[in-house]
Amino acid sequence: MISRALFITMLFLLIGVVALGIYGLHLKHQMELSAELAPEAKPVAAPVNGSTAIIALFVPEDGSGVLVRRDVSVEVPSGQSGRVREILRALVSTCQAKNSTHPLSSDADIREVFLPSPNLAVINTNAAFADGHRSGILVEELTLAAIARTLAVNMPDIKQFKLLIDGKERETLAGHVDLLEIYPTDQQTWAQLLPR
Amino acid sequence: MKTAVHFTRGYVFLLIFFLGGSLAQEKKLTVYSPQGSAVYAVVDRNGTEYLALQDILSQFGNVSTKQSGSTFSIRFTGRSGPPIDATFAQNRTSGSIGKRRVELPSPFLLSGDRGLVPVASLPQLLPGFTGTTVSLHQLARRLFVASASTNYGFDLQRTAPPRLVLHFSTPVNPSVATEPGRLRMTFSREPLIATSKSTNLGDNTFSTLTYNEWNGTAELSVSANAPLLASFGDGGKTITITAQATPQSLAATPKQNQVPGASATPNTAAVPPLPQPPHFTIVLDPAHGGEDRGAALTPTLPEKDVVLAFARRLRTALQNQGIDVILLRDSDVALSADQRAIAANAARPALILSIHATSSGSGVHLFTAMLSPAPRTAFLPWDTAQAAFLNDSSAIAAAVSKQLNSRDIEDESLSAPLQPLSSFARPAIAIELTPLNGKADSLGLPSYQQPIITSITAAITDMRPLLEQSR
Question: How many angstroms separate the CA atoms of B126 and B110, rounded?
């Protein structure tokens, strides 16, 4: 037989636990609601001094294994290498958006683009671009194909590209596709990944 | 066109050079301790080899240095015990560690903020800081701290084909290179030591096992009169070296073939032996392994485990069809792309299957190398050797696809820029498993894997005549 005082204490404690649980659920719900309503943290492209242009991005769909064209408006500088960099940043940003069909790390970025010859782009990404990339043959190949097709359509003079990670060569993007190669941008090479 | 490609590559290499820095080969010293091994750059000064004292001490504890004029002070704090102070002076052969005076075989040197000591002085200096015994193999530049060592033994199995099994006291992961009549294993991180330099194996196939060490590495070399293939097992503690049958070696030991109806007279010796068909062998290449976990399919399910389990089940299924199977790894060890290509090509199999798994997409992805078909010649470029076998590889991919479809398994046939697939000099495809109904857990289930294994086995059985002809 428990005493009346102990019974009342236990009752208050129980009520307290239930009340705190309900309050916790309420806070969780509020956080989820505010996250849904929050605007995208990252802009579609970094602010640059230049003109606005409509560019075609080829965004991978991991589920179907194809690239899907999406036209966006981007501020592009007049210089060639800066223009390539901003176009590719727009591609990366699109993949970083919520509900992306080909998620990239939120820290992934295109650091700089070098054009050692008019038809070659050497693209230097930061380490997060590769470190945070999903691992798999097709999912990695889609990233290369997206870069290739986006360059081919928007910068037709560029016929080849080479990807560097944090200024250095890497053997693979995320354990699979070969990054030691220089890749062509032509449609024929990547045709298998275009919608049929 | 070729000139343009050369210029393009030149530009890229220059860019990488400026971005990534020089990759020049240097003299190096490897320090092995029970906690691990580390490699340090060695520099020549006045004909003597030196290295930075603070670099090597940082492997064993915290180090702080102070420079005042020509005097260099260093404070070392080990994992236990009080800090130890040491003092050296530029161009002087005497110094002190704690209260003990030490004499160096060559003068102490300063190079920027680093204090350089002769490599030969390390057995004298390091125990003063760490309190442990040190053994230096000076010509090979290998330093063994405390009881760090890996020993090995061997077991020669005179089976068909003969095998040389090397047993190591700790797991090892050497880089493996083959050349005609020789297989070399280079141990960069393992404190491998041997009691004898060269062992005569006294076998018809395997002749010698040789140990050598230089520039911070050790090497085991096996000589034989047949191509050799190395495979890892027992978590990296065993390396099995198998002699592969060659047309020459088969001709040297022909079986006594008898033509039906012919009498066994002395004339049979004049009948040329019938050519011995080579074994129909499939090489399975489970991707990743060791520290390379591959894709994280779920928080607890790495790709390397799924593909190894799949490869073992596929091996059993193929062996039940009378097909010889070689697994490039049968345990959790890391192999580089080049190691895989060397081992697979040396086995001269009918087909090579690389096995992968991923957490995205659906069905089974079948990949051939992203290359243009090329004619078969005596010498094939290493990076694009697969181009000469691409037509056969595509035929195999189509056969597997047909078998998968007959079992209502979705598939997609693609090409991909993938190593070691592009360096395989035999028909080869890569298979990537994807989750069933988006559930990555399903990738490890035998019930999910078995229909795919049955499809692959049926496709290989169907394509066996083509593969035999292709050899």
Answer: 19
